[in-house]
Amino acid sequence: MRSTLLCWLTAVAALSTPALAQNVTTTQGVSITLRGIVDATFFAQDADFGLGTGQKANYVTLERANWIHGGDARNTRLTVALAGPEVSKGWRGNATVELDFFGTFAGAGAFADEQPQPRLRLAYADLTNGRTTLRIGQDWDLLLGNIPVSTSHLAFPLGHGSGGFVGWRFTQVRFMKTLSAAGARATTRFQLALLSGSWSNDNGADTAASAGERAGPQIEGRFDYTTPKWGGYLVAHVDNKINPSIKSYMVELGANTTRGDLTLQGNAYIGSGMAHHISQIVQFGDFKGWGAWLQAGYALNTKWSIWGFYGTDRPDSTELASLPLAGVTEASNTSIPVAARRFSSWTVTPMIRYKPAGPYSVGLEWLHNEVKLGSGNILSGNQVLLSARYDF
Question: What is the pTM of this model?
Answer without folding.
Answer: 0.90
